[in-house]
Amino acid sequence: MIKVGAAVVRDVRGRVLIARRKVDEHYQWTELEGLWEFPGGKLEPGETFENCVIRELEEELALLVNPTGILLELDAGTDVKPVHIAFVAATAKAETSLVLRVHSDAQWVEPSQLCEYSFCPADEQFLQCYDIL
Fold it and tell me: Could you count the other beta carbons within 10 Å of the beta carbon of residue 132?
């Protein structure tokens, strides 16, 4: 099973960071291309979910975050590609310009606006299970 840390990051104004997956013909999960997600990535050996989101957000978006705890864990994916995702609450350490290294877009949005975006299934499941407002 693949273990993933997904960051639910808020800025000083209370907005939430979401990122859009790139469309890439070499991507292994093409069904997720172009959908929005809470950014993060795969755990490395010996890494906690909190440390994972710190590393991944710095690598993918040049964003420094301070994790504050796990909001929800859930199993997703398919029988062929099972995934365990921990959604980690975090705050942005400073207002900085995001650098898109693996996403096609990233936006800070009001929590009430999240329903306007098409999310990956696991992120959609998180939004249905957890009241982010």
Answer: 15
